[in-house]
Amino acid sequence: MSANGVDRKELLVILGSGESGVGAALLGRQKGYDVFVSDAGKLKANYKQELIDNGIEFEEGHHSEDVILRADEVVKSPGIPDKNEMVKKIRAKGIPVISEIELAYRFKGDSKIIAITGSNGKSTTTSLIYHICRKAGLDCALVGNIGYSFAKQVAEDPKPLYVAEISSFQLDDIKEFRPDVALLLNITEDHLDRYDYKFENYISSKFKIIQNQQPGDYFIYCQDDEVITGYLKNINLQTNPLPFSMRQELNKGAWIKGDQMMLKVQEERVSMSIYDFTLKGKHNQYNTMAAGIAAATLGIRKEKIREAVADFHSLEHRMEHVATVRGIEFINDSKATNVNSTWYALESMSRPTILILGGVDKGNDYTLIEELVREKVKAIVCLGIDNSKIHAAFGHIVPVTDTDNALDCVKQSFRLAEKGDVVLLSPACSSFDLFKNYEDRGRQFKEAVKEL
């Protein structure tokens, strides 16, 4: 109650006005909160219009401390780190900070959630699970880190099933969030700048995906990932484990034996040929096993899983064939923003490769791909502002040249390549030095290829 005896609406402050922030604002408003959106930067025109249309108060270019520190709860955008001054003040005052997926979870009702996390392969696996579910006739939505806000979906078009791609940043601020089916694909060193450069902090952040799970839930994970299996030895698992592996047969889960993928969740064992998978490469066999298990936990029939796995199309910016120009194939893997992603891309190359690397380095350890570079790469073309680390890592192995825009980069790569070669954009770095994001980098790369 307020001083005059009238019930006061709870003040929900949204910090950051991107896809997740605006989604949280719309859901908060719908559920009766007093909502205020604050962004230290500039709001995108479409998001600003959405807030205006819905009568939601906002500010841009600064944070009004007097309003923000009156909040009952704050929804923090995943892009804002904890070391941000405003976040420090909010926490110091004891105001609860949650993520947008936590808010969405609060109001999802009886709907089920399949949540997918991991350092690599999240988007592909999430999209494949969604594709299988749609193929099986399930009424579901694709949400989270992949592009559409979970909170906005809950507010505008609730579904009985949500297939959600979840990043570690989104998991950092959960309290009750609990997926019915959680997938942890792999853990490799990534985003360490957000975790005090401590790998163990990043690992525990990823494992938050199962922190609230119960005995009726499922946990799908990679048995071949030593980081995951090492961590599992030290925790008491409250959920049903369903591992997947290429190295061993399992009692339950999925594994590859010869050219067959075996899938066993309940009593029935299903097998399908890996040659029928649309997605090629070892990493995609892992992604397909994980997606197959997730589908099986929902009781989707094996025929539907087979059908969906065979006609799924890969994502834009993820090992995407762009064009073949004079016998030289160009592949856009701009979504590879860490070294491990680039390792997977190189591992699937069967022809001599011109590799495009570079951007904002997040503490990369290039020794991970040194062997593959020796084996498969003819030359490296850098696409970034500071390429000194790449020169130091590979200059003694292959020729390394510098470019600072997509057009020059593609022209230089084309000059270095011969008929039968592949030009692979798989940068191992984020894109913010020269581009808006990895999508912008990928699109500019594709445009430049078209101009050859």
Brief rundown of the structure:
By secondary structure, the chain is of the alpha/beta class. Helices cover 35% and strands 22% of the residues.
What does the model show?
This is UDP-N-acetylmuramoylalanine--D-glutamate ligase. Residues 317-429 form the Mur ligase C-terminal domain. One of its GO terms (biological process) is peptidoglycan biosynthetic process. It is found in: Cytoplasm. GO terms for molecular function: ATP binding; UDP-N-acetylmuramoylalanine-D-glutamate ligase activity. The chain is an alpha/beta fold. The protein folds into 3 domains: 11-98, NAD(P)-binding Rossmann-like Domain (Rossmann fold, 3-Layer(aba) Sandwich), CATH 3.40.50.720; 102-311, 3-Layer(aba) Sandwich (UDP-N-acetylmuramoyl-L-alanine:D-glutamate ligase), CATH 3.40.1190; 320-450, Alpha-Beta Complex (Protein-Tyrosine Phosphatase, Chain A). Helices cover 35% and strands 22% of the residues. The protein contains 17 helices and 20 strands. The strands form 3 sheets. The chain has a 9-stranded mixed beta sheet. A 6-stranded mixed beta sheet has the order 15-16-20-17-18-19, sandwiched between helices. Strands 3-2-1-4-5 form a 5-stranded parallel beta sheet. Strand 2 (34-39), helix 2 and strand 3 form a beta-alpha-beta unit. Helix 1 runs parallel beside helix 5 (100-106) and helix 6 (122-135) packs across helix 12 (302-311). The longest helix is centred in the middle third of the chain and has 16 residues, at 282-297. The radius of gyration is 23 Å and the shape is globular. It starts with 10 loop residues before the first strand and ends with a helix. Residues 1-6 have low confidence and may be disordered.
